[in-house]
Amino acid sequence: NVKQYSGITDADAAKLAATKLVDSTHHGAMWYRIGAVRRFTGGKQIEPILEDHLKQVYDVIKKNGEIGYDTLNHMLPTFSQNEETKYAVLEFHAPTIAVKENIGKFPVTIWRHGNLNTKATVRVDSINGTAKEGEDFVKVKEVVEFKENEEEKEIFIELIDDNKWEPDEEFFLRMSVVHHKDLPVKLGSISIMEVTIIDNDEPGIISFGKRGLLVKESTGFVEVPIVRTHGSDSEVSVKWKTIDESAISGRDYIGGEGEIIFKDKEVAKILRIEIINDLCPEKDECFEIKLFETTGGAKIGNINRIAITISSDDDFDSVVDRLMLLTNINIHALELHRQTWAEQIKTAMTVNGGDLNKLKLR
């Protein structure tokens, strides 16, 4: 009797039962390989995960030779051939099932075998696990009736999509017999099913929009773009902090650390850092900003650091002037391709392209 152990709730008992059912099922080599890979990569486990206190209870149960049970404190039945033909045996089609949170409603199959020449009735109830009734799924309290010769019935379970990232959660379905003197019905070995809700929300990846920015010292501030890609579900946040290089916080800029919050569906934010203009000619100076520690399931992207270069006004202007000059030269070079073939031939055959004012004689 599972409930003889102190502190065991219905949810704990259901999880212990599901573990026992999985352990007692024959598995091939591929099942163990998949389990090993998922444990190594942190993926969804293919068997129930027991907390430490439940592991101790489970070890005691195995040691004492208890081979099956349900949350009603009854040992799970085994049937002789005569009993198999006498009773209608009802059970779930599998001990565990995993579904995505946004599935809405999904079917669960109840399988009937043994005596098919009679009606049969069974009750299905939900039990909270880490997933909670009313928050993650709609409460199940259903009576299922089989007619003569019916072997399968489906019930539909409804999940609640809360549009909020959260780790995978589970709850349980428990089957119990609706007793009737004229209906010889018993439960099979899979009278408890673990339902795992796989979170479908994509909180996204947060990173800087660029690896570096050049800012004029007299501008007074720099606006740093932070972007959220590959998903924008739910509210997430990321922390940031400045790192001194040749530019020093408090002397060349106002640094520090803080937190950027993306609300549901927001994909871009601007971090504004104040630049101190000391009015003194100096070389270019640089500092960095780093992203770290997200919440809400978001991840940090590859561009998690950005270099901010502070240029003095004269240096900045000279850089801009050089860029404009190079741009104009390139644009002028393209003018040749705007001429017709006849104009290009005429220009090539004319001294200095026809510009005699700039002609130099040697």
Q: How is this structure best described in words?
A:
This protein has 362 residues and is of the alpha+beta class. The protein has three domains: 10-64, no CATH class; 88-198, Sandwich (Immunoglobulin-like), CATH 2.60.40.2030; 205-314, CalX-beta domain (Immunoglobulin-like), CATH 2.60.40. 21% of the residues lie in helices and 33% in strands. It has six helices and 18 strands. The chain has a five-stranded mixed sheet, with helices on one face. Strands 11-18-16-13-14 form a five-stranded mixed sheet. A four-stranded mixed sheet has the order 6-3-1-8. The protein is elongated and about 110 Å long. Mean pLDDT is 78; it is low at 1-6 and 64-76. Pfam families: Calx-beta (PF03160). This is Sodium/calcium exchanger 2. GO terms for molecular function: calcium:sodium antiporter activity.
Descriptors:
single chain; 362 residues; alpha+beta; Immunoglobulin-like; 3 domains; five-stranded mixed β-sheet; 21% helix; 33% strand; disordered N terminus; signal; repeat; calcium
Concise structural overview:
With 362 residues, the chain is of the alpha+beta class. It has helices spanning 10-24, 29-41, 52-63, 81-86, 313-333, 341-349; strands spanning 88-92, 96-100, 105-114, 120-127, 141-146, 152-158, 169-177, 185-187, 192-198, 205-208, 212-216, 221-229, 236-244, 257-262, 268-274, 285-295, 299-300, 305-311.
